[in-house]
Specification:
The chain is α+β, with helices and mostly antiparallel strands and 319 residues long. Helix content is 33%, strand content 18%. Helix 2 runs parallel beside helix 7 and helix 6 packs parallel to helix 8. 50% of the residues are buried.
Length: 319
């Protein structure tokens, strides 16, 4: 698929009434990260935290992903967030690296088990609502690639973490029931809506990822080109989901690191600036981020333990 075709693909569906209904029914959403942990307020000021640096410690490299070819961006983003959080825990010595997260294990339940079975909304065509997917990650968990012998059947999911054929299958039928107990070993415990740059900065500085969908694009044509410090700015429209995986607030450069690796590493070119952003990533200024989330939905997702402050664990990602 060409870059121009990616630009037309979409995949995130903006449904404000659906989002409100999910929030009202959820048992794992909190009103804000500051309600969950008041000590997080202001935590990111003056800090530099690049969560994907955990991959370098755990895997010895930064991962790249095959570009999506269906509107699976919501599931693909959730799987990449699962990878970041697993790598962060593994780098801190808390878990063994479990392998890459399977995007279909997010995309399928978001559309079927959460979207249709629970809320009665059949999504036509490709795509998903981020709120559905975040709910899925807190109820059904995240499945890693591997071989699973369950109920007399061997599921060979090696190398399937970024497989859109599997996304298409599970996005129609849901995640197989036999695999659900395995996926629930990796549940995100909480999530919180993000409504400002400061909330997003503080959450990421404490080790959490942001998962968002927006109508605001950072490109008018592809590949997009970062400026000398790694920034992109709003130009054009989209219907896309991606993540925030880093924060930089060093007094000279202030912004958030956004990851669109589900389009592969080549959708963006140009300098990374003074910090190692990594493949498929860029910086956005506070006002850019706020414009993006004002035109969509955004959540901080707490990993497998909730929203504590994790400053000691972040020594290896704080430059």
């Amino acid at each position: 698929m060409s870059l121009d075709q990616l630009n037309e693909l979409g995949g995130w569906q903006y449904r404000p009434e659906t989002i409100e209904r999910v929030m009202a029914a959820s048992k794992t959403v909190v009103a804000s990260i500051y309600e969950a942990n008041p000590q997080l307020k202001g935590f990111g000021k003056g800090k530099v935290a690049l969560l994907p640096q955990a991959f370098t410690k755990v895997l010895g490299r930064q991962p790249t992903y095959r570009a999506q070819w269906i509107g699976s961006c919501v599931g693909r983003t959730g799987a990449m967030i699962g990878d970041v959080q697993s790598a962060r825990r593994a780098a801190a010595g808390q878990i063994k690296w479990p392998g890459h997260t399977i995007a279909a294990s997010v995309y399928g339940p978001a559309r079927v088990e959460i979207g249709f079975d629970k809320h009665g909304t059949r999504i036509r065509g490709d795509g998903a609502v981020v709120a559905y997917a975040v709910e899925s990650a807190t109820q059904f968990g995240l499945l890693q690639e591997g071989r699973y012998d369950v109920a007399g059947r061997l599921w060979d999911l090696v190398g399937k973490h970024d497989d859109d054929d599997l996304c298409k299958e599970w996005g129609r039928d849901g995640m197989p029931d036999a695999l659900e107990p395995i996926a629930r070993r990796f549940l995100f415990r909480q999530y919180a809506p993000i409504q400002s740059y400061e909330e997003g900065r503080d959450a990421v500085a404490a080790g959490y990822s942001l998962w968002f969908g927006t109508t605001k694009a950072l490109w008018s044509r592809l590949p997009a080109e970062r400026d000398a410090n790694g920034f992109l700015r709003i130009s054009g429209r989209t219907a896309h989901s991606w993540s925030v995986c880093g924060t930089i607030d060093d007094g000279k450069i202030v912004g958030l690191v956004e990851d669109n690796g589900q389009w592969g590493p080549d959708w963006v070119t140009g300098p990374e600036g003074p910090y190692p952003l990594g493949p498929g990533r860029c910086l956005v200024a506070p006002e850019t981020f706020e414009a993006q989330i004002a035109a969509g939905e955004c959540y901080a997702v707490a990993d497998y333990q909730g929203f504590p402050i994790l400053e000691e664990e972040l020594t290896w990602i704080t430059l």
